Structure formats: C-alpha cells, structure tokens
Amino acid sequence: MAKDTAGDAFVQFDRVQKSYDGETLVVKDLNLEMPRGEFLTMLGPSGSGKTTCLMMLAGFETATHGDILLDGVSINNIPPHKRGIGMVFQNYALFPHMTIAENLSFPLEVRKMGKSDREEKVKRALDMVEMGAFGGRRPAQLSGGQQQRIALARALVFEPELVLMDEPLGALDKQLREKMQFEITDLAHRLGITVVYVTHDQTEALTMSDRVAVFDDGRIQQLAKPDQLYEEPENSFVAQFIGENNTMEGIVKEIKDGLAMVELDGGEVIACKPVNVSKPGDRTRVSIRPERVEYNKDRIHDNAQKLKAEVLEFIYMGDIFRTRLRVAGNDEFIVKTRNAPDQMRLKPGEQIEIGWLPEDCRALDA
Amino acid sequence: MSASTNTEPMLSADGKPLKQSLARALRRQKIRALLLIAPLLAFIFIAFILPIISMLFRSVENDIVATTLPQTVAALQTWDSSTGELPDEPVYAAFASDIQKAAKAKIHTKVGLRLNYEQSGIASLFKKTARKAKKWDMEADGPFKEKLIDIHKGWSNVETWQTLKVHSSNYTSGYFLNAIDMHKTASGPEFQPENKQILLTLFGRTLIMSLAIMGSCLLLGYPVAWLLANLPMRHANLLMILVLLPFWTSLLVRTSAWKVMLQQQGVINDVLVNLGLVADSARLVMINNETGTIVAMTHILLPFMILPMYSVMQTIPPSYLRAAKSLGATNTTAFWRVYFPQSVPGIGAGSILVFILAIGYYITPEIVGGTKGVFISNRIAYHILRSLNWGLAAALGTILLVAVLILYWAYDKMVGIDNVKLGG
Fold it and tell me: Residue B4: is its pLDDT beyond 80?
C-alpha cells in the first residue's frame, strides 16, 4: 500500500503558525517531521495548540503561516474531503440517523464505490474491530466502547494512510480506556498506518506512541520517544508535565566532569546532571523522580547523593508505598518505593537519610 | 432481556405486592403535583375545552324550530312534502296557534332568522305574520289557511313548508351541509346554486395558501436558523434579537406596514416605476389578493419556523459535518446526507406550527387579503359577527379542527410524531 519514500518525511509541518484573532499566536513556529508508519502523540495541557495542529492537518483550520506537507506535497489549499485523511473524533461523531453499516459505507459511497465492494469492505472493517454482528444497529444502541470501535473502523474503512485521532478515549472509563489503547496501537501497527494522536493523558501518550510531542504555549517543548521523554526531560515543563517529579530550586555553583554542583535554597549542595544550565551562577530547578529515591540503607548506592529527611506522611497504596518527606526545606518531597518483603515501613516524625544517583537528578531551567 | 420475566408479582418486605406498595409511597407526591397544576387544569377546562365542546355541539344543535313551533312540527309529521301540495288546515291552525304564542313571548324573530339562513325571505314573513297573528282569537277566527295566505303569499308556497319540515328536527346536519356548499331539501342534500357556492373554494384556498406560507417560511427560515446555530455566540445573539424583533411590534402595525409597502401607489411599486422596471400604467397588484396575504403572513409567521429549527440545529454538533468531510464528502453531500436529515425534526415542528397558525389566521388576511386572499377564518368571523349564523360558523370551525387533526395524523403516519422536536 505504501510506496517507499525512505528518509523523506510523510507528514511535515514547516514553520507553521496559527492565529485566530490576529493578536495572539496559538501555534508558534511549529516544525515537525513524521516518517511513514509512525504513531506520534501530541500531548499537552488544554490550550497548548495540539488540537489546532491536528485540525490544520485535517484541513478544518488554515495555517496562518507556513506549510503543511503530506507525502512531500503542500496540502494548505486542499479541502478536507480531498485529503484522504481518516479521522476519529472526540465524541466519535457517528451519524445518529444511519445504521452502523451505513456509517461505515458512507466514505465508500462518496467515493462512488460499487455496492458489492462496499459491502465487502464494511464487513471486513467491522470484523477488524470485532463488531461484525452490529452492522444493523444504530449508534445510540451501542455502548461507549463499541461506538469508539465503530468510529475507528469508519476512519479506517477507506484505507487512508494517515489517521488522526482527537482524544478518542476521553469519554471511556479507565479499564476500557486501557483496553482500547492496546487495540488501537495494535491495529495501527498491523495496518502500517501513520497515526497522529492527540491527548492530554500522559499515560496514554507514553504507552501508545512511537514518539511523543509535548506541547505547551504553542510550541513543541520536547519531541522524543516515551522512555526518553520520561527519563530525560529537556526542560522543567516537560519534567513537571510527564509523571511525578520532586523539584527543588537553587543556584549552580560549578560544573565539572559532567556534573553540576547546585546550592539549594536551603543551603545544601548537591550534585546533579546539568541539562539546560551552562555556567555557574545560573538559577536552576533540579528535578528527581520519586521512584529513583531510596531510603533503605541497604539499597542506597555508594556514589549516591545523600540528604537528611524527616518523614511527614506514609501512605500504603498496595503495590507501592508513597512517603512524603521534608527535604532541604521542601515539604512536598515524594518517594515511591516498591512493596517488597525487605522494604522499611516508616512512621511520621522519623529522621532518615535518603539517597539517589547524581545522574537521576537533572538540573533544568528555573 | 432482563431477568424480570417472572410470572409471580414481586412482593415487598411486608408481603404486599410491590406495585401496590410503590403506588402508596408515591401517592402523596402525585396528589401534591396534581394540586399544583389544578388551577391551570381548571383554567384550561373552562377557557379552552368547554368552549370547544360547546362549539362542536352548536354545529348540530337545532331545537329552536321544534321548541318554538311544537304543534306545527307535530302536525307536519303527517304531511307528505314530496307531493308538491300545500298542507291541510290543521297544519295552518297549529302554526297560527304557535306563532301567536311565539309573538307574545317575542321569540318569533329568532326562529324566523334561523329559517332565513335556509330560505331567504322567511324572516320578514314571520315578522309580518306574527304582528297580525297576535290579535287573532284561536277559537273563532278559523280557518287559518286562507288567513295566513292572505297575510303573505309565502304561506301558499310549498317550499316554505318544506323548509319548515326539513329543519324541524332537534339535531341537524344542515350546518355541515351548508359548510360544504350544500343544503338540505325535501328530497335530500343538494349542492347550492353555483352563485352561492363559496365555502369549498375558501377551504381549498386556505389549505393551499397555508401550505405556500409554510413553504416560503421554510425556505427563508432554514438558512437563518442555520446561521443562528453556527455563528459565534456574540453574532448569534444579535441575529436572534433581529429574529425576535417582530414580536415586539404590534401585529396590526406590521400588517399595515405591508399595506404601505405593497399597494399600487406604495413603496415597492414607486421604486420599480422610478427604476423603469415597471411601466406607470402597469403597476403590480400585490395587495388585496393572494400575494399580499402570503407575503405578510410569511413575515409574521417566520419566527415560529426559525425558532424550533434553531433549537434542533443547536443540538447537532459541528463535528458531524467535519466527520463527513474527513470521510471524503463534499460540502453539498455532507449537508444533504448528514446535516439535513438530523434537522428534519426541527423542520417538522416548525412546519406544523406555522401551518396550524396559518390555517386559522384571521387579522392579516382580513387587512391585506382583499376578496381573493381571505381565509375560511374570515368567513367564520363573518358568520359570528355579521350574519349571526353561529351554527354555520361552528360547523366551519369544526371542519377546520378536524382537517388539522387529519393532517397531524397524516404527518404522524408519514414522518412520525416522535420526529418532532422543539429542541433539547
């Protein structure tokens, strides 16, 4: 199905800007390249410009400046119905006055496909999402998860190479959402389609995507693979937005041997990995993941950065323990530890020592 | 299917049937709810349901002849009206006695008026007769056949007696026959003479013009409703005010304004003549005919079409159109295949509303309709206010009511009344 254009980007945003009112930019200078077959997620808080980007790609919004290219061709002036891009909407947008089969048949009918071809493709698409028996029903007779599957099947039935999904799982409950996350990625990889997926749910982004673009303030803050994004955030927004993070502010004292010595506002000096600090005197926000901190003496590494801490709260969560500590004057320092047989259970008021590897502690912009 | 297919009724904890317990638990609530709406129910019953029932009854009620002229009606029983011969003396004597009593009770004009609807001239015949009959002595002054014929030659006319006999029953289909341009004769129902036929034409015109008004409201209103539902809030509010603006102006003012606009020396004609599009000698006739009525009523009823359509369109998310386009449909296809079918409930509601309002409209056709643009309602008003033939007015009203109900039923059969939404 896909013709090989190795190396060339399949979807490309080239210096794209978007403004609705002529006064503020909703999307500021967006550059993005996607190879064919990639599953890319646009993640960000609401108002960050991710949905606007998706709508520009679908053709429902026009870019104020810049080019959007699909397979090397600028699609700025191509109307939505000629772009051949499949789309799954937030509330599914299944046509309520048509049956499921008619819904699926619609994109084929407008493409003037013959009746027998249509029926065959509709049947195949329904089987693909395991909804073969539901062709005669109306959308209102289906559950949320079933409607979601039909919306997916409808976006795929005319075999588009690119499929856009706008928070498609937002209306489902947690369990169903997790199941559908798997089904969507599985289907996308099986069919080899390119997917642009918009969500504000970071778990969804991390579990489903090949790459994640984190949006904030109309810009891509970081575009990386999920593990990179989580473990090596490039700035404090990404560090804060993805997962949980302990942050402490301070000033860089010196940088040597790939480590930055940071004097925290409480007076303690700790070693961190410099990410976007360049010289002594820079103000920085150091960030460390709760699960990378240890308080069990046997587990603290010899090279670890150690600090004194006071236990404020110990929460038993079943699979993990969540401990709130006061560290270097920060009352919101969280540590997550696995519920292992040898793990200590702390009591509020206890004075302990915690430690972490200096490379897990990242000195980011303040 | 749920598991509630047990044939045994469910029992509550104390062993009573669950339904009974539930009904008791809800009874207080129901009574309170009923009391809250009781004033409204009473008002509707007195001001709406009773008048309708009384109107329906009036369209068949005809006891005036039998109660005013009881002896005559009894005597006429034996008279064969089809022979073409005048009744015998006993009938005349009975009538003389009846009319004397009626004249003394001063109710003879009413019955005269009633029979005058059926055969013109009877009213004056009754008046004249009653005046003379007051002075008669019933024992001595007979025979009355010659006396009556002497007073007025109408009494030697077989038709007069036929009319009396035909309309002597307590209930009559006469008004309904009148309402469809027929009348009762001694030999059964017949069509009125051509020059008296008007009501069927009026019914037909009312129906056709109401449909035309409904159609033009739909054509003009649909795009407005669409804009209202799809513009940003600020602009939509302004547009909504414009739509509602007519409601703030008196109906009479608006209708009169159309008179100013449309008349032959009016604004539109003047502009067309000044532009040279129309010759001064050939000014368009746009008022006091069907055109005037359709234009003015479309304007007046437009909001009733727009508002239900708007409230339905508001519930159609824009993502449906987007979805259709993303699936490859052109704007036109997306509209007709996806948007339009979902707006049909609004069209249905608006059309029914406008049609029913139009079919019974009175003031506007009266002012701008002339003679060619008046509706059946104007005729009903005429019979109520001028000719005082309330029975005929009631029959016309009943036919109108039944026609609307039949159309409503037909709509339900064709489109389904569940498909009518006023929003939500």
Answer: no
**Which residue in chain B is spatially nearest to A85 when comparing CA positions?**
B326
pLDDT of B80 > 90? The answer is no
Residue B2 pLDDT exceeds 70:
no
Could you tell me the domains of chain A?
6-236 (3.40.50.300), 244-365 (2.40.50.100)
Q: Looking at residue A125, what is its pLDDT?
A: 92
Alpha-carbon distance of B348 to B338, in angstroms, equals 17
CB atoms within 10 A of CB A279: 10
**B388 close to B372: Cβ distance less than 8 angstroms:** no
Q: Which of B317, B328, B331 sits opposite A111 (nearest CB)?
A: B328
Mean pLDDT of A257-284: 87
DSSP code for B362 = -
Q: Do A93 and B342 touch (CB under 8 A)?
A: no
Collect all residues with Cβ–Cβ distance below 8 Å to A38 and sequence separation of at least 6. Answer: A10, A194, A195, A210, A211
**In chain B, what are the domain boundaries?**
63-168, 199-419
Cis ω for the linkage preceding A226 (within 30 of 0): no
Sequence length of chain A is 366
Closest Cα in chain B, distance from residue A86 (Å): 6
State the smallest CA–CA distance between residue A167 and chain B in angstroms. Answer: 13
DSSP, collapsed to helix, strand or coil, labels residue A362 as strand
Contact A86 B328 (CB under 8 A): no
A121 CB within 8 Å of a chain B CB? no
Quick one: CATH architecture of B199-419?
A: Orthogonal Bundle (1.10)
Nearest Cα to Cα of residue A195 among A242, A205, A179: A205
For the stretch A154-174, pLDDT in tens is 999 999 999 999 999 888 888
From chain A, the residues in CB contact with B324 under 8 A are 95, 106
- More confident of the two residues A304 and A102: A102
Residue B401, judged by CB atoms within 10 A of its CB (0-12, 13-18, 19+), counts as: middle
For residues B15-41, give the mean pLDDT.
Answer: 89
The CB density around residue B225, as the number of other CB atoms within 10 Å, is 25
Residues B198-221 pLDDT 10s: 888 899 999 999 999 999 999 999
Structure tokens belonging to residue A25: 């930019």
Helix axes B267-274, B251-262, angle to 10 degrees: 30
- Residue A106 token pair: 């619609």
What does the pLDDT read at residue B422? 62
Q: Which residues of B227-239 are buried (b: 16+ CB within 10 A; e: fewer)?
A: bbbeeeeeebeee
Q: Smallest CA–CA separation between A164 and chain B, in Å?
A: 10
**Residue B119 confidence (pLDDT):** 84
- At A68-126, the pLDDT tens digits run 999 989 999 999 999 999 999 988 899 999 999 999 999 999 999 999 999 999 999 99
Neighbours of B61 (CB within 10 A): 16
Distance spanning both ends of chain B, measured CA to CA: 29
User: With bands split at pLDDT 50, 70 and 90, how would you rate the model's confidence at A2?
Assistant: very low
Q: Is A218 on the interface with B (CB under 8 A)?
A: no
Pair B130, B121: CB distance under 8 Å: no
